[in-house]
Amino acid sequence: MGERAARRPLVLFVDDIHWADPTTLDAIEALLVTMHSAYADGTPRVLIVAAHRPVTGQRTGDVFAAWLRRLAGRVVGVRMTGLDEGAVATLAANRLGGPLPSTTVEQLTRWTDGNPMHVLAALDRAAAGTDTTELDPAVFVATLPRIVDEQLDLLPIDVLRPLEAAAFAGA
Predict the structure, then answer these.
(1) List of residues 6+ apart from 130 with CB closer than 8 A
(2) If residue 15 lies in a helix (H) or strand (E), which one and from where to where?
(3) Which of 67, 104, 119, 168 places its Cα 20 to 30 Å from the Cα of 49?
């Protein structure tokens, strides 16, 4: 990576890093330290962007929280929040071609926690074959299993099987 970065700047994006095992976290930290010291006298050539959600009370969350504490002062955190009701209303109106009732927007915002991907998926599912001016908020809740199933269907079978086993075991 260092050789490539010497030729041109690189961006490494790691999504859902809160689920990473300790070895992966250590490797990313080592990369961070190595790249920082390699370019301490000039412009950094590697940007590491790591996205995560708050995870607490689980072994994985504890490991990740400890890792973040070790990196304090060496990383910049940007806290993202979900969309507020006004933004969800605008997103819904743009997606559906017209406004939703405020009670529906309120429930949709609460149910999706303002996550744009979840908002769009719920809107698409609920609007399929439906008069979008009178969407029932309960329809959005009923779409959650389908949204999750569709996302799981995108995973390779060798990734899906262990997840199914873990879900069955209650892990």
Answers:
(1) 139
(2) none
(3) 119
